[in-house]
Write a sequence for this structure.
């Protein structure tokens, strides 16, 4: 009896990809072998009331709840999410009229730079809350049109799919014998999207010219940096609800091309891994796919970060794999480094935080982190992390005690014998060294009483 998930998935013949015979799920809906012109003529939806559907009350209420739930920073007009309801009461009729007449002009997005884990800066564009509401409402009517035709092996920002599904699919490929990976890195993908190329693909399935005009207006809205508005001739700013769907629409052509060639791949947004049986096959695939991406999609492949390598030497969505037959999912080395860097930041002894607040920040970060990385075989990592985190907290506490008399008083209160308390309180060793010497004095039970949560316990619960 096939599972429900397998029943939902269409089949691809073994002749098209011999490797897929041992890897499920197979195929995806709507994988065409026809030309773009044929796709456009056969799948274009002849409906000119898409804008009215976007502006229906139920759709707008759903979008409003989603925007409020997501929260986020205000845009260039400084209107916050909490002020959106009052803003709508005074401005909605004007905005609605402008949308229906095709005269609505989105405000520029607010440029925000955040550091990338691997170095460099990621450019985010924060739309106003009004534009976030409209983009969300538009997303909700466009998603049912485009999503059913996307590849089964596209997992990013799609309903019913998540990053863990992509990692599990990659694991199945490796288990089936495809033990080489073509790791494609698209250079500054969201900043380099060609507007004309993207709009041509949107127009394949959307015939309402007002909606097309609105999407184009969002692409051309511009970016405000330092109080100056700069025009945007390419790119779809990360930060708006519509950007992930537009990215999937553009990259769906890549998915179709890979499927037509019978290649086994997994894509999550702009992270694409193609699994092959040999290095030679991988190098051949790499060159041909680069020609397609740069020629047809007008995107740029980062050749320095792209590679043909063993899967256990690469990372995918923060995970990697072991080289055993089961291709066990593990934490990527950079993931471990980033985790430790964040913990060091929270437990920096030079930051004068109350211990309760420090532990609260740690708990929120650790529980979110392990919730995502629970897929990996990380029991020993979690155990070691717990010990290391408690030691860093002991270091912070020792630093807070500062003076010998304060240390002596606190050590006595913890039940340390007088001779040992006096010796420790007057020690000239630094906080990090003393954090090891106070292990028995400040044991696990002490930190549990303070509210510190355990990574290991949470990991075992989730597994």
């Amino acid at each position: 009896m096939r599972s429900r998930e397998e029943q939902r998935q269409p089949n691809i013949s073994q002749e098209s990809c011999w490797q897929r015979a041992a890897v499920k799920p197979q195929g995806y809906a709507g994988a065409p072998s026809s030309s773009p012109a044929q796709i456009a003529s056969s799948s274009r939806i002849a409906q000119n009331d898409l804008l009215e559907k976007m502006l229906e009350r139920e759709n707008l209420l759903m979008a409003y709840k989603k925007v409020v739930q997501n929260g986020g920073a205000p845009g260039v007009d400084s209107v916050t999410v909490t002020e959106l309801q009052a803003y709508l009461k005074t401005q909605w009729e004007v905005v609605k009229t402008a949308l229906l007449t095709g005269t609505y002009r989105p405000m520029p997005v607010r440029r925000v730079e955040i550091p990338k884990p691997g170095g460099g800066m990621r450019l985010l564009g924060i739309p106003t809350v009004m534009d976030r509401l409209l983009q969300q409402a538009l997303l909700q009517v466009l998603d049912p049109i485009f999503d059913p035709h996307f590849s089964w092996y596209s997992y990013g920002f799609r309903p019913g799919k998540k990053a863990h599904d992509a990692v599990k699919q990659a694991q199945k490929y490796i288990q089936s014998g495809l033990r080489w990976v073509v790791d494609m890195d698209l250079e500054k993908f969201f900043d380099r999207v060609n507007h004309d190329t993207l709009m041509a693909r949107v127009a394949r399935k959307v015939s309402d010219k007002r909606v097309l005009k609105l999407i184009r207006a969002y692409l051309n809205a511009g970016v405000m940096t330092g109080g100056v508005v700069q025009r945007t001739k390419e790119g779809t700013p990360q930060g708006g609800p519509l950007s992930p769907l537009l990215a999937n629409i553009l990259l769906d052509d890549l998915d179709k091309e890979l499927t037509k060639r019978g290649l086994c791949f997994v894509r999550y947004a702009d992270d694409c891994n193609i699994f092959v049986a040999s290095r030679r096959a991988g190098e051949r695939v790499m060159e041909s796919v680069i020609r397609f991406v740069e020629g047809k999609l007008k995107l740029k492949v980062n050749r320095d970060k792209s590679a043909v390598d063993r899967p256990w030497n690469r990372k995918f969505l923060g995970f990697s794999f072991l080289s055993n037959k089961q291709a066990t999912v593990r934490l990527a080395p950079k993931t471990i480094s980033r985790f430790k860097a964040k913990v060091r930041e929270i437990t920096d002894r030079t930051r004068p935080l109350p211990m309760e607040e420090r532990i609260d920040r740690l708990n929120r970060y650790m529980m979110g982190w392990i919730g995502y990385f629970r897929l990996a075989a990380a029991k020993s990592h979690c155990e070691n992390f717990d010990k290391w985190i408690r030691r860093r907290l002991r270091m912070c506490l020792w630093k807070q005690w500062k003076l010998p008399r304060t240390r002596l008083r606190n050590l006595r209160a913890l039940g340390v014998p007088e001779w040992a308390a006096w010796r420790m309180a007057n020690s000239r060793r630094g906080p990090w060294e003393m954090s090891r010497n106070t292990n028995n004095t400040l044991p696990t039970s002490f930190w549990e009483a303070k509210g510190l949560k355990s990574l290991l316990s949470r990991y075992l619960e989730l597994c």
Remarks:
- The mean pLDDT is 87.
